[in-house]
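## Example record

The block below lists the input lines for one assembly entry, exactly as stored, with component labels intact.
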Amino acid sequence: DAKTTQPPSMDCAEGRAANLPCNHSTISGNEYVYWYRQIHSQGPQYIIHGLKNNETNEMASLIITEDRKSSTLILPHATLRDTAVYYCIVRSNAGKSTFGDGTTLTVKP
Amino acid sequence: DAGVIQSPRHEVTEMGQEVTLRCKPISGHNSLFWYRQTMMRGLELLIYFNNNVPIDDSGMPEDRFSAKMPNASFSTLKIQPSEPRDSAVYFCASSLEATNEKLFFGSGTQLSVL
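Predicted C-alpha cells for the full assembly:
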C-alpha cells in the first residue's frame, strides 16, 4: 500500500477554510485517495475520495496535484464540529485500507 | 439503513476469558473489515472478508484471534484467551466491494481486559 504523510496537528479559526495536506508520493496509477475523519471515539466517517480530478461534495473539496503525489482536503467554512482527526489514505487494489496517524484539526472560536 | 451494527458497545472481562465481538454489515455490502484502535498503534486492519471469504488476515496479531463470517449479514471476532494488551476499541466496517469503495464504520466495541 502507498504510504501517506500528514502533519500531526493543525488549527483553524471558525468560519475560515481549513486546508489539510497529505503526501502520497508512492501512489500507483489506479489507486484512489480517500479522506475520513474521526470525532472523539466514534468510528471513522467517510468524507470524499478521488483518483486524479478534483472532487467536491457537500462536506468538502479534494484537490489532487497533477502528478498525484499529494492532495489537499478543504473544509470551506470550518465549524467547531469539524474538530476531529482527519485521515488521508490510499486504497489499494488488494482492498486494504491502511490508516496512518492522521491530522488532528482543532477549530477555534 | 441502520448502518454497520456492532455489539456489545462495551465489554469488560478478565484475563484468560473468551471474548466475542459481533458485527452486522450494511445490507448489500460484499466486504467486511475488522480494525483495532489503540493510542499506541492507531487504527490497524486486522482482517477483511470479501463475499464471506477471508482475503487478508495478515493483521491478526496472533493465534488467539480468530474471525468468521458465516453469512453475508454477520461476522464475529473472537479472542481466546484474552490478555490485558488486547484492550482497545474494535471497529467493524463494510463496503460494497473490497476495492475502491468507501468504508462505512460501526460505532465500535470498547474492550477492557483486566
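The mean pLDDT of chain A is 92. Residues 24 and 30 of chain A are 13 Å apart (CA to CA).
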